[in-house]
Amino acid sequence: MTAQALTVETTPISDIRQLILLLDQRKPLLWMRRNQGLAGIGVALRLEFSGPTRMTDAAAAWREVVAAATVNDPLARSGTGLIAFGAFAFDESSSETSVLIVPEVVVGRENGECWVTRTHLTEAGPTGTGTGTPAPDIPLALRPLGDEYRISLLPGALPPDGFRRAVGDAVEHIANRDLSKVVLARDLVGHLPAESDLRRAITELALGYPDCWTYAVDGLVGSSPETLIRADHGEVNARVLAGTISRGADAAADHEAALTLATSAKDGDEHEFAVQSVLNSLRPHTSHITVSEVPFTVKLPNLWHLATDLEGTLSDGSNSLDLIAALHPTAAVAGTPTDDALALIRELEPFDRGRYAGPVGWIGADGDGEWAIALRCAQVDADGGITAYAGCGIVLDSEPERELAETKMKFRPVVEAFG
Description:
Mean pLDDT: 91
CATH class: Alpha Beta
CATH topology: Anthranilate synthase
Strand content: 25-35%
Largest sheet: 13 strands, mixed
CATH architecture: 4-Layer Sandwich
Shape: globular
Structural class: alpha+beta
CATH superfamily: Anthranilate synthase
Distance between the termini: 45 Å
Low-confidence stretches: 124-135
Number of strands: 23
């Protein structure tokens, strides 16, 4: 396999405060939190993967791309130099491709500092697609948002009644000790009008959920609260979220909701499954790893999550793609035991999850990167079709009506962003 040869140049620029306005209105590439992150424009190289080895194949392909690249990066900081955005399918049997995309232009912003990285393909080969000629010097232009639109997202392949039945069936399997936990999702569908500016929905997500990772990769857009893994100069950290409750209507009710979540045996059990899943996956790659002593509550605009932070030191030279391959799928998005949970998901969900609940994020030439779990998201197809997903963890004492209500809470960011 011949790797693509890329020429990459990073230079500092004046601060650009509105990364979203740089993006293509139908093909945005974004990774942002609190108005800091990376915005991509154009495509210098696109790599596609599928099947059970999609992430390890991506890790190997990325090493080849890096080895063949000529990179001038005087800043040498996280997010500079050669960068690829990525989004991976949840299931190995998914018909949705998993992708790594190297933009022609990346604009980065962190702590008031800004830079631009320009990349062009200098040699064509069978690894991916490209022009084989230098990319045009794409100007950095802030383009105003297009006309407003409002669309409705309606029940898809698994409507509310079907989801209630699926939860009941899952609880029965758990009662029979077939498995301990399974995460079930349902879908909403809609259609984006022609020439609609996808940046409008992204802006709503970024403004409404500033502490989440707002992302856009190959039509997958969302704001995820859950960091799957962050690798930075040999250190790794992750945040596990499992266990959810709606925010209270006033300060007293909100405090009571957080306390209820923190002391809930059901949510505590669900959370512990997720934490142990991540620990078991990371231990072979780390020399030591530390975990929050007790779970803590994380407040989002519409709900509370139960959270645990993990930190460790890499010991085996893995890059961030190797790590997502080891971690995915966690118990937070699949269940426990993993193989039994995946089999039940395939049985009870009448749709392909695509990239929902898969890893989404970016990787640099040094292998460092940031990856979230693709939650609170929707996939927008080339023809404007939209499919949004939301799920929740099912354990022995789960109640179908409560789980349905939880999916409605989790749909809220995307429903409000588009509607």
